[in-house]
Amino acid sequence: MSPVIRCLLLILTLALTMGGCALQDVGRLLGGEGAALPLVPIGGIPISMVAEVETDHRETAGGGEVLSWSLAWRHSAEGHLSTTLGWAPAEETFDRGHGYGRDHCFSPCGAEHNLTFNWESELPFDDPLEAPEFHIRIYGDEALVLYGAADVAYERPPMPECPCLPDWRIPEGRHAISYETYHYADAERAPDAADSMLDIVQSGVVLLRIPIEELRAGTEITTAVDLNEQEGDADGFAWEDRLRITLTLTSS
Q1: d(CA 145, CA 47)
Q2: pTM of this structure
Q3: How far is residue 123's CA from residue 175's CA, in Å, rounded to a whole number?
Q4: Closest CA to 100 of 212, 199, 177
Q5: What are phi and psi of 96, to 5 degrees?
Q6: Whole-number Å distance between alpha carbons of 241 and 232
Q7: Element (H, E) at 247
Q8: How far is CA 183 from CA 55, 180, 186, 243, in A?
Q9: Residue 105: strand pairing partners
Q10: Are 71 and 54 in contact (CB under 8 A)?
Q11: Is 155 within 8 Å of 124 (Cβ atoms)?
Q12: SS3 23
């Protein structure tokens, strides 16, 4: 057998072997046998992020009664950033999720019959479609870390009946609180927030701007965003929303 033919057969054998391995990997990714392998961009930058999030809402009625709720959680994400494929998340986890609130029943029987109800709950974060979201988007030679809004679920405990308003009682069980980032006037937005088709780009808050070369060289950085929005009227009604996010990002 000539050297040329021997070389061609060797190349064909290698191609078939590699093709078989590739098909096996695709099969795993599509739910076949074996553990699923994440799609890692070639040349992607390994990045891990941790966000400590707190969001509060407070309302004050004309009589001075206060209604409020607060949520807090820790959100971790790992993945790779590529200048060609963008952000490819590999794993996300939530922990330390906790919520508490204060409700007030204004009874028509008189102020002496008003009822205040305090509640607290764990935050399950068991539905990925409703969970808060990390995203990294590249603009020129910079990467922007975005964090998006969500409806955060909680398990509401039973509450007492409000005098003269038996139908006012909110049923116990699963409920959701919507916290929205886009209504904060001071929040930094992505440059294409008004035109993007992605919800996370439309409404997400920019947590960090960082040069891609700095990410590629490897870095660890901690930064924080503290947003506040409030409004009131002459009758004494007022409301205030606050969102605090502390981000720690590590690249290698």
Answers
A1: 11
A2: 0.77
A3: 10
A4: 177
A5: 55, 25
A6: 12
A7: strand 238-251
A8: 13, 7, 9, 11
A9: 115
A10: yes
A11: yes
A12: helix
Q: List the beta bridge partners of residue 7.
A: none
Q: Would strands 45-60 and 173-179 be described as parallel, antiparallel, or unpaired?
A: unpaired
Q: Which residue reads 């809004």 in tokens? A: 149
Smallest CA-to-CA distance from 243 within 25, 30, 72, 26 is with 72
Sheet holding 115-122, edge to edge: 115-122, 86-105, 66-82, 45-60, 238-251, 219-232
Full pLDDT tens readout for the chain, 252 residues: 555 455 544 454 444 334 434 433 333 344 444 444 445 556 689 999 999 999 999 988 777 778 899 999 999 999 999 998 899 999 999 999 999 998 877 778 887 888 888 889 999 898 888 889 999 999 999 999 999 988 888 887 777 777 777 666 667 778 888 888 878 889 999 999 999 999 999 999 999 999 999 999 999 999 999 999 988 887 778 989 999 999 999 999
Q: Write down how long the chain is.
A: 252
Q: Which residues pair with 178 in a beta bridge?
A: 151
- Amino acid, res. 144: L
List the structure tokens of 119: 């509640």
